[in-house]
Write a structure and sequence with these properties.
Layout lengths: L3 H13 L2 H8 L3 H15 L4 E3 L4 E3 L1 H29 L3 E7 L2 H17 L3 E7 L5 H7 L4 E6 L6 E10 L1 E6 L11 E2 L7 E5 L31 E6 L2 H9 L5 E4 L2 H4 L5 E7 L4 E8 L5 H15 L9 E2 L1
Parallel strand pairs: 3-4, 3-5, 8-12, 9-10
Antiparallel strand pairs: 1-2, 5-13, 6-13, 6-14, 7-11, 7-12
Helix pairs in contact: 1-2, 1-3, 1-4, 2-3, 5-9
Protein name: LysR family transcriptional regulator
Keywords: DNA-binding, Transcription, Transcription regulation
Family: Belongs to the LysR transcriptional regulatory family.
C-alpha cells in the first residue's frame, strides 16, 4: 500500500519533473524527495523516472502509475473534503424563508454565493406571510428568515443587518396625505386608522405610532389617547394594500414597496424624521448551525460587494 507522503511526492514530481521545485511545493528537502522516490521505486521493482543531469521524465511504468493513481488520489481527497464539510455542517439542506419580493431578490443572490461556497448544501427558499415567520422558525420548518427588524419574539435573534431603507406610508390614492410633497410625520398618524398585518414581527416607526393602539375595535379610540386608530387586520401584504386602497386605513411600509407593489389605488408618501427601516436575518437562538453562519456570511458579502439590485438604500 502506498503511503500518503509517497503518493504526494510521486504526483508532485510527475507534475514538476524537477526535484528542486517538488521539494519547494512539499516544503521538504530535495534529498527527502529523492529518498522517497527511491523507496517507492524499490517497492515497485522498476524505475518510475529517468533522471539525467538536465532533465527528469517518467518511465512507461511511471506513466502507467500516474494515470491510475491520480484519479484515485483525487477521489480520496474529495471524499476527505466532503467529510470535513459534513462535520462542519456545510452539507444537507438549509431552509430559508423570506417576506416580500425585495427580500426574495436579496436571498436569491445570497443563495447563489452560498452554493458556490458549499456545493453539497441545498438551499430551499420559501415565501412566508408575516404571521408564519415565527412559527416556522420555532418549529424548525425553516432555519433562517429574512425580514424587517427589529423583532419582538422571545427565542429569536437577528443579524446581520443587511440593508436599510427609508420608511414610507401606503395611503389611498385619493387620501389627503397622497398630495403632500414633503411627506408625513409620525405624529400625523395620530387618529388615523392603521392597517395591521397579523403576526407582523417588525416594530412600527418610533413615536406615538409605535405604541399599541387602543383595543376597542376598528374606527374607535380610547378616550384621552393620542394614537393611531386600530384599523382592520390583514393576513397578507397584498390584502393589507387592498384594504388601504379601499380607504380602510394606511400602512407603514419600506421604500421598496413603490417598486415591487405599485398599484393604481395606493400612493406611497415618505415618513419624515423616522429612522431607516432595517432588513436582516432572523434565526432561533438555539439553532445557529455552521450552515446558518455560512449563509449569513454569504448574504453580508453580497451586500458589501454591492451586487444586489433592489430599491433599498444599500449596505447596512
Amino acid at each position: 500500500m502506498i503511503e500518503r507522503y509517497e503518493a504526494e511526492a510521486f504526483l508532485t514530481l510527475a507534475d514538476e519533473l524537477h526535484f528542486g521545485r517538488t521539494a519547494e511545493r512539499l516544503h521538504v528537502s530535495t534529498a527527502h524527495v529523492s529518498q522517497t522516490i527511491r523507496k517507492l521505486e524499490r517497492r515497485v521493482g522498476v524505475p518510475l523516472f529517468h533522471r539525467t543531469s538536465r532533465r527528469v521524465e517518467l518511465t512507461p511504468v511511471g506513466r502507467q502509475l500516474l494515470d491510475e493513481l491520480r484519479p484515485a488520489w483525487e477521489s480520496v481527497g474529495a471524499a476527505l473534503q466532503r467529510a470535513v464539510e459534513a462535520g462542519r455542517g456545510l452539507s444537507g439542506t438549509l431552509n430559508v424563508a423570506f417576506v416580500g419580493a425585495a427580500a426574495a431578490q436579496l436571498l436569491v443572490g445570497a443563495a447563489q454565493v452560498f452554493r458556490d461556497r458549499a456545493p453539497d448544501c441545498e438551499v430551499r427558499l420559501r415565501e412566508a406571510q408575516p404571521g408564519q415567520v415565527v412559527p416556522w422558525l420555532r418549529s424548525g420548518e425553516v432555519d433562517l428568515a429574512l425580514g424587517a427588524l427589529p423583532v419582538d419574539a422571545p427565542g429569536l435573534v437577528t443579524g446581520p443587518v443587511l440593508v436599510r431603507e427609508p420608511r414610507m406610508l401606503a395611503v389611498p390614492a385619493d387620501h389627503p396625505f397622497a398630495g403632500r410633497g414633503g411627506g408625513v410625520t409620525v405624529d400625523d398618524l395620530v387618529g388615523v386608522p392603521v392597517v395591521r398585518l397579523r403576526g407582523h414581527i417588525a416594530a412600527m416607526p418610533p413615536g406615538r405610532a409605535d405604541r399599541e393602539p387602543g383595543t376597542r375595535g376598528p374606527g374607535t379610540r380610547e378616550p384621552g389617547t393620542r394614537e393611531p386608530l386600530p384599523g382592520p387586520t390583514a393576513d397578507t401584504f397584498q390584502e393589507a394594500l387592498t384594504l388601504v386602497g379601499a380607504g380602510q386605513g394606511v400602512l407603514p411600509v419600506g421604500a421598496h414597496a413603490r417598486r415591487y407593489y405599485a398599484r393604481p389605488d395606493v400612493s406611497y408618501v415618505p415618513v419624515g424624521a423616522a429612522p431607516l427601516l432595517e432588513w436582516g436575518l432572523i434565526r432561533p437562538v438555539d439553532r445557529t448551525s455552521a450552515r446558518v453562519r455560512a449563509f449569513a456570511e454569504a448574504a453580508a458579502g453580497l451586500v458589501d460587494a454591492d451586487l444586489v439590485d433592489t430599491d433599498l438604500v444599500g449596505p447596512a
